Amino acid sequence: MTKPYRTALSLLLVCLSFLLASKGVYSFIVPRNGALRETRSLFTSFQFEDESPEEPTSNRQAEFQNLEPVQESSIRMERKRKDKETGKKFVSYGDDLWRLRSVMNKLSRRLLDAISDGTPEVEDKVRSQLREIEQQDPELVYEMELKDLQLAKATGKTDDAERHGENAMEARGCIPAFNLEGLWVGKYGHHGYEMINVTYQGDQLIAYKVTGDKNVPKGEITFQVDLSPIKPKAIGSGKMDMPLQPISLTEKAAKKWGTKQLPRYRGLGHVAEPRFSNGQWMEGQLILISQEYFSFAWIPIETQIFFGRPSPELALKMLRENGVSASGGLKAWESPPPIDADVEVLKEFAATCLDLTTEDAEESLEGGAFSCIWHGVDTEECSFQ
Ligand SMILES: *[C@@H]1O[C@H](CO)[C@@H](O)[C@H](O)[C@H]1NC(C)=O
């Protein structure tokens, strides 16, 4: 197949899947898996009602029946294989990681004892045990590899630098705090629900407001967090440079969230008076609750906002209400364009389908639209000190 033809076909497929979705054939549910299922039901996203698919009404629909799944490209398959392999190297977020860290603490103490006791055999043994398990903690590996990278660069060892750079990125990809990219929704007090966009600039997490309010409007940063494990030593700082200890949960809360501790990171929260005047940054904390929920706390004003992933319908609705449209203007289509039509024409058709689908989806989105976002009632367990 030639490239333009393939592009056209995939555009039509995208379009078709939106059409199907609007007919209730597909249901869009935020993906979820095992451990936190119970909790996640709090955030359950909207689901299309199940209607039986309609009989094909146009002869064009026949073209899309019994389609084989698209063959994945070799690059994509290779990447998936690598991701899986990398995932196996590191302990995943949650209690396995906390257990690993407590074993590391024990071994470190034993190492210190061995050194002060002057027992080199014990020292060697403990040291190699420690080295081995350290390799399973992605945050620790990221930090160590970055330090090695700096050293290799400083000493002009380009091959080493390249290897450490790759290892560092591999570990970084397995750290939950570096996997929050994209859209989230949280309740900003009496301003109501707002959407934010989490982005990364290097190791800085920067959360922009996608929708805003009269204090901090859209497009502005709502909070930011420096996640870099290596911070330049500032003179006279001290306490504020120390990493924050994770929050220990009560037994009940631990069960609910599937983890005994919640990691947290220092950041800066943005506040302002109406019309974005007197904006200022204040001490804040990013608290990871699970891979899919987090909160940010504005410490001095004792405000904590919980963020959850919006369902696709809610995301579209909030974006549209804020003047972000999938297509410029709507064009009325009597019938779909032919498959060999110009790519631009097909694109326009797909965009129209998306807009119509969105309208459909919004009609069915009623008061429960925000039920997917948890607003932190019943959360005394997760509050910060
Ligand atoms: C979110 O941020 C990314 C990266 O900067 C950007 O590409 C994307 O368009 C943003 N999304 C919205 C809805 O603002």
From TrEMBL:
Keywords linked to the UniProt accession: Signal, Ubl conjugation pathway
Signal peptide feature range: 1-27
Record-linked InterPro entries: FBXO31/39
Superkingdom of this protein's organism: Eukaryota
UniProt pathway annotation: Protein modification; protein ubiquitination
Keyword Signal: yes
Protein name as annotated: Plastid lipid-associated protein/fibrillin conserved domain-containing protein
Species this chain originates from: Cylindrotheca closterium
